[in-house]
Structure formats: C-alpha cells, structure tokens
Amino acid sequence: MKIGILSRRPSLYSTAALRTAGEARGHDMHVIDYLRCYMNIASHSPSVMYGGKSLEGFDAIIPRIGASRTFYGTAVVRQFEVMGVYPVNESQAITRSRDKLRCLQLLSRKGIGLPVTGFAHSTKDIEGLVNIAGGAPLVIKLLEGTQGIGVVLAETRKAAESVIEAFRGLDANILVQEFIAEAGGNDIRCFVVNDKVVASMIRKAAPGEFRSNLHRGGTAEKIRITPEERSTAVRSAKAMGLRVAGVDLLRSNHGPVVMEVNSSPGLEGIETASGVDVAAKIIEFIELEAKPGKTRDTVKG
C-alpha cells in the first residue's frame, strides 16, 4: 500500500515510528508536510499538490495535525477524502475533537463521565460559573491550550475569579472544571485503535505540579485499566468519530471521567511505558480497513 503521513517533520518520534512500522510490513511510506500542500479544488479532478507535483496513488493517509494548524491541516485531509483516499481519522472527527467545548458536549450527550464543567462569556457571570464547578479549588482551562499550557489550578474562590476575569479580559474562551483531588495529580492515557484499547499508561505529575503531562515533567508507567475505564475510552473515541485516539481519564470517586480526547496522540510516551508497538497496531488497522472512498463518520454534532 502507498501510505502518506501528514506531519511537519520526518524526525518526530511518532512520524518516524509510523514510517518504520509501515516499511517493516512492506508498505510505501511517504512523509508529507501538510503546510506545504496546496489544493486544486475542482469538480472533476480534485488534487493535492506538493513540491510542484500532484500527490496521486495513495491508499491511505495518517493525519498528524498539530493543534495550532488544525484549520489548514484538516482542509488538506478533507481534500484527500474528496479524492477517495482513506483517512485514519477523518477531517470532521479531528475538528470535532479539537474543539474542547464541543467535545465535552458530545461526550455528555452520550452519557460519558465528565468532571463538572462550566462555560460562560460575560465577566458578569463569574460567580455563577464558579458555583457550577462546585467552588474552589477548581481548574481553569483555555479552550485553545495544549500539553498543559493554559491550565490553571485556582485554590481559592478569589483566585478563581481573578484568573477568569484576566482570561476574559484577553477575550480568551475558557472552561472551568471541578478539581478531582482524589486523582492525586495522576491521569490515565488510553490509546484506542479501531474501537479497542491497545495500550494504556498512568502519568504522574511532578512534585508540586497538578498537571501530569509528560511535557511538564510528569512520568509514565504501564497500568492495567478496569473494564469500565476501557469501555469509557472506547465510547469516547466513537463519540468523536475517531478511529485512532488518545483518551485521557481521571479516576474519581464516582468512576472514570474524561478530560480530553486527542486525535493525534503522541506515540513515544505510550510505547515506552507500555512496551506495545502502537505504530504497528495502526498500520495493521490500515491494512484491515483501508478502502477507496471508505468513511464511517456518522456522529451528529
């Protein structure tokens, strides 16, 4: 098969791992910088151009779209879809999961466990917003934040009101969520491929930190998840319409709650912690599922 990896740099761990896994199974792998792609949007012969040449003959693409490049990256994925190329994750599903508010609303509609979450526009409603989340301590998140950036733990009501007012003064969209103290600064990443959890790890926050992101000094190790956690992860990926996803969970007193569903989850941390060749699992999935023009995104919303 001819498989394209939409990624900014071939040297990135996840990109290199996918390329190696594909080549090991005899596939023709190509790394494509999606920001250098340009598109011919025509009714009869739509195409994606790269380096002055038309990208043709691809059986599948693996989108590795950075959060800050979602708009253009998903436009490129969508153009491949128009051309009948099979996407591991479809453009609509990627866009859906990147919108944190929309993601939580869809998960809520499916009855999936979530931390109590509030969202508002006006600074006049700060007191009510804080009350929704159960008061302090609470977590305040920028909707556009990634890798723990733009996430603040407000330990008092006054601090929460000040942070919310400051963010809104910058016209930033924010969420406020209850602080799950019993999680102890740990979260669980479940890696879902084709409606199955193929690997999982627990990430532990660095001392003095409440965010467990590996980019922020957290550590990771293999973990055996419960059937309820496994089911929650799979249902969350399906709710987004994602075939490949990283689902982040917290263990709360009332069961697993979902913090985020990631459409381009990194492979290095999960492969190192779990010992599972996740890249190979993704390639095997493509071999099984990739058909010209095949899509399955039936999620509404």
From TrEMBL:
The keyword Metal-binding applies. Mn(2+) 1 binds at residues 248, 260. One of its GO terms (biological process) is SOS response. Its cofactor is Mg(2+); Mn(2+). One of its GO terms (cellular component) is cytoplasm. Gene3D superfamilies: 3.40.50.20, ATP-grasp fold, A domain, ATP-grasp fold, B domain. ATP binds at residues 141, 178-179, 187, 211-213. NCBIfam families: PRK10446.1, rimK_fam. This is Probable alpha-L-glutamate ligase. It comes from Pirellulimonas nuda.
